[in-house]
Please model this.
Amino acid sequence: MSLKIRILEGNSYPVIICDHCGETITDAEGGNTVWREPLKGGRSEGQLYTVQHTHKKCNWEFMNRRFPEPNDGTWNWMSHELQDDLFMLLVNTRYDAKEAKRKMGWTERITWE
Ligand SMILES: [Zn+2]
Model:
């Protein structure tokens, strides 16, 4: 699972870790969400898949080294742009930016890498 909590200066921050290189994905534009989806039977409504995340630069190598067994034709790699998925997560959770900012006023102190 690539969603982790990192402790910095005593505070806890969620971060997304690349499942290939283990580094933090600090630029959503440079990341992907990836998952394996079975081909047989097609998609079914409500189906859930476990996802992993990679830097775009790590994506191809991740897909080929993480599961080096030959694809037997029963599954396929799927991917989304991380930036798009983060937006959809905000929509799907009815994210309220104003309320979040009010509650998390301490984030003003965050210094990004
Ligand atoms: Zn990476």
In short: The helical segments are 56-66, 82-92, 97-103. The pocket of zinc ion is lined by residues 18, 20-21, 23, 54-55, 58 (CB under 6 Å). The first helix runs from residue 56 to 66.
